[in-house]
Amino acid sequence: MKRKITIRDVAKKAGLSVSTVSLITNNKPNVNDETRRKVLEIIKQLGYHAQRSARGLASQSSGNIGFILTEDHFSQAEPFYTKIFLGTEFEARNHNFYILLTTVGWTLKDHNQVPRFLLEHNVDGVIIAGKIGASWVDYIHEQNLPLILIDYELPRHRVSTVGMDNRTGIKLVVEHLRRGGHTKIGFIGGDVHHPSIAERFASYRDTLSAGGISIVNQWIAVGEANTSLSDGYEAAKKIFSMNGERPTAVVCANDAMALGCMKFLKETGVAIPGDVAIVGFDNIEAGLHVEPRLTTVNVHREEMGGIAVRRLVEMIKDQSAVLTKTLTPVELIVRDSCGVKEDVSD
Amino acid sequence: MKRKITIRDVAKKAGLSVSTVSLITNNKPNVNDETRRKVLEIIKQLGYHAQRSARGLASQSSGNIGFILTEDHFSQAEPFYTKIFLGTEFEARNHNFYILLTTVGWTLKDHNQVPRFLLEHNVDGVIIAGKIGASWVDYIHEQNLPLILIDYELPRHRVSTVGMDNRTGIKLVVEHLRRGGHTKIGFIGGDVHHPSIAERFASYRDTLSAGGISIVNQWIAVGEANTSLSDGYEAAKKIFSMNGERPTAVVCANDAMALGCMKFLKETGVAIPGDVAIVGFDNIEAGLHVEPRLTTVNVHREEMGGIAVRRLVEMIKDQSAVLTKTLTPVELIVRDSCGVKEDVSD
DNA sequence: TTGAAAGCGCTAACAT
DNA sequence: ATGTTAGCGCTTTCAA
After folding, report:
1. What are the φ and ψ backbone dihedral angles of B299, each rounded to 5 degrees?
2. Is B63 inside a domain boundary?
3. Measured CA distances, A269 to A84, A136, A258, B256 (Å)
4. Which helix (H) or strand (E) is A67 found in, with range?
5. How far is it, in rounded angstroms, from Cα B70 to Cα B129?
6. Is the CB of residue A129 less than 8 Å from the CB of residue A69?
7. For the CA atoms of chain A, what is the radius of gyration?
8. CATH number at residue B20
9. Closest Cα to residue A294, out of A304, A283, A303, A302?
């Protein structure tokens, strides 16, 4: 087994000191162009690559980014957060970082639940995706580590976030239904304490108002504990078991609940979209396989992860970087469950 | 910002040398029990944790495991390999390893496609999931790195693998159909060069033969380039566009192709399972949402990842560990697409 | 623009 | 059972 190539091998072969070679491998200035060229050539010849742990020890940096997910997000069947993770992984490569993923409990109770990569100083910054207890954000701030939140924010915390344009998404949905002639539009929201859900709900109300459509409280189901398929099912049951007039369309705050809503309506013999139009949000895979195929709002999950990494790397390289909130765009995907074709003219 | 706690802080406070502390943090023998207890106590008090990069440099080990996926597996909608990855992540924590994930092209062409974690000696072992070019396996062997393959194997290579019990899975499927009265059973295989698919195909033939059911070549579609939904669609078209007798059941080598097959049959007005029973393999999420719900074979993806990590850690700690091939069990999941209820008696 | 040298925090021989 | 010490391979002053 042949010995590993070190910086000293390169220096020796180039007839230079290791410090000059180090300057070059780190793209630092103040090196003669010709020297740089020559050393780069030798590095290539020798197949030299600086060893991560040596570099880490000397520079007190790990070259890693920590990615934290709560356990329930982690084990979800629908790969929403997985896609975000893959986005971070991909972008991290462009910046020569590795992603270390771990899951944690909802809230930081005692200190031996702290991810090992934090204890061992093995990350230079952290990304957290999804709703999580504020104690985690506090802890990471205490460690003086750069932090980005994806698809979540905390009101009283100064922290950079990457989210999606929830308001525009719902606006597109409601306006599309309205163009299709709908004026009786309900809403299934689930956990409105989640900032994204809250925004979607607010946008639903705003867009109805702006369009002169009245908001009927009986057609609104919010406040379920969660935002899963079964929550959507229960919400639909609530709305459609009422006496009196029924909505002709229901906007759901995400696809999972939309699927649950459809399940209930199918079971009770309500035709979709004939009797009731359904629209979701998130564009999950399952929406493509259901009958009728679900109209929804597409979210760029990978891109959200990618942007989070770019922001985080900026913060790592320049600790004075300012707080940012980035919104990724969304777009309406018209399929069959809303009964309104894209080309309806107004 | 308070200084980081180092092993010297612990040693000083304990009135001992750093080497004794090191012995203790590494769970080495030859330390007085009382000393150990005392130092552990101090470590806890101080909140000390050995820094990964320092440890790595001194011991020439990274504490990381590399996870390699081909680009096409990585970007698949269905999170088959993602689930495997999550399984490795989870198990890695139990052994104090981190997982570094990366994707590569199908085959190793030139050396600047080599994952950075290999170049920088930043992993102690490698897991590869799914079909991949043999050049990658060769390269990793050259680096003298422990390696495990998941859901793949290479005939002429000495390498440990973790797979699933494909033969038993198909056997269960075929026997179940037979108990339901089926004797005209087709097969859609796709890329039979993949070892798992090849095993499933072989088991289909073997089980038919063993049950005295004749194998009809017109009902078998194998050799498509891939194993995706559209391959299943094309395969179904091939089988059901023939003149002559048709099968009353089709065994598909995976769920994706089963879904494609169902799509074709639905479009051509064939009732499932009334006219033709369909069974898949893998138990992907989408099989639950299709109408009728897909009967399939469940595969423990997370467990496969977990086992791979355990094997790999054994190899890392004991380079003389023997070659192993581990099969994870599978089970038949009877749903609606096969028209045969679980309790059919024979 | 380059070199010399002092660590970074830990492990592992070797000595005691 | 514990201590001494020499690195691991790199970055980073500081000096030349």
Report:
1. -120, 135
2. no
3. 37, 46, 16, 30
4. strand A64-70
5. 8
6. yes
7. 26
8. 1.10.260.40
9. A283
Considering only CA atoms, which of B93, B158, B162, B103 is closest in space to residue B303? Answer: B162
pLDDT tens readout for residues B42-82: 999 999 999 999 999 999 999 999 999 998 887 776 778 88
Q: Is there a contact between B290 and A289 if contact means CB atoms under 8 Å apart?
A: yes
Around Cβ A4, how many Cβ atoms within 10 Å?
11
Q: Which residues of B touch A (CB under 8 A)?
A: 1, 4, 47, 49-57, 62, 64, 74-75, 77-79, 82, 86, 89, 93, 96, 98-103, 111, 116-117, 119-122, 144, 259, 285-286, 289-291
Q: Calculate the alpha carbon distances from B156 to A216, B159, B201 in Å.
A: 69, 9, 21
pLDDT of chain B along its 346 residues, tens only?
Answer: 357 899 999 999 999 999 999 999 999 989 999 999 999 999 999 999 999 999 999 999 999 999 999 988 877 767 788 889 989 999 999 999 999 999 999 999 987 789 999 999 999 999 999 999 999 999 999 999 999 999 999 988 999 999 999 999 999 999 999 999 999 999 999 999 999 999 999 999 999 999 999 999 999 999 878 899 999 999 999 999 988 899 999 999 999 999 999 999 999 999 999 999 999 999 998 898 788 999 999 999 999 999 999 999 999 998 888 899 999 999 999 999 998 876 544 4
Q: Does residue B269 belong to any structural domain of this protein?
A: yes
Domain range for residue B33?
1-48
Length of chain A: 346
In a domain, A78, yes or no: no
- Domain count along chain A: 2
Using the 8-state DSSP alphabet, how is residue A342 labeled? Answer: T
Bridge-based pairing of strands B125-129 and B64-70 is parallel
CA-nearest of B68, B66, B53, B58 to B117 is B66
What is the C-alpha separation between A93 and A90, in angstroms, rounded?
Answer: 6
pLDDT tens sequence across A180-200: 999 999 999 999 999 999 999
Owner of token pair 């054994």: B314
Q: Which chain B residues have a beta carbon less than 8 Å from that of A89?
A: 101-102
E strand residue ranges, B119-247:
125-129, 147-150, 160-164, 185-190, 220-222
Measure CA A223 to chain center: 23
How many residues can be counted in chain B?
346
Q: How far apart are CA B221 and CA A97, in angstroms?
A: 45
Q: Say which CATH number the domain at A170 has.
A: 3.40.50.2300
Measuring alpha carbon to C1', the residue closest to nucleotide D5 is B19
pLDDT at B4: 86
Which residues neighbour A110 within 8 Å (Cβ) at sequence distance 6 or greater?
none
Separation of CA A306 and C1' D10 in angstroms? 30
